[in-house]
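FORM 7B - TANDEM STRUCTURE REPORT

SECTION 1: FIRST PROTEIN
SEQUENCE AND TOKENS:
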Amino acid sequence: MAEDGANTTEKPKRKPGRPKGYPRSGGRQKGTPNKDRAATIERIMREADPLLFLCKVARGDRMAAAAEPGAKKKTWWVPTGDQRITAAQTLARKVMPDMKSIELAGPLGEPLSVRINLGGS
């Protein structure tokens, strides 16, 4: 082999990247849906309206069910109590924030003390 370094298999050194602690720049913001996801959500809302359906189930509204092939009469469906509760819980999760446990402590990590004044001074 030649000693001039022509046949070396070493990779050239990379330049150092962004130093640790520096914020990222560029790219899509976190939580921004891509075009496919946005189009899918828009179509589902236009075609099916899942929130309206859940509201109807939670209220216990009577709804037309898919008829048997060749049937001449509509069939109706009324949600059960369990189905209504499940629909209401699903809707509540959409409008209420998730509860998080928080540990409370007084100054210097001491336990909290509560003093209630019941009238008087």
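SECTION 2: SECOND PROTEIN
SEQUENCE AND TOKENS:
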Amino acid sequence: MDAERIIAEIEWLEHILTVPDPRPLTASDLLAVNRRHDEKLANSPWFRLWRQYGIGCRDESPVIQLGGTES
């Protein structure tokens, strides 16, 4: 096992992964990123408030959920 070769390959991979992707984001890229973000923060009470009242910059319409009426 050549440790120096392995270290050089790891450094090369690190360099490749730090170079930004020059391609512009597509609509499906943005949808995927937003979906992963929403799934990651789904249990956050602040995020649920944000989603409920539509505060943000997404194209989606805000949804206001009112509590049930008591008789």
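SECTION 3: OBSERVATIONS ON SECOND PROTEIN
The chain has three helices and no strands.
Helices lie at 3-18, 27-40, 45-53.

SECTION 4: SIGNATURE
Preparer initials: ____
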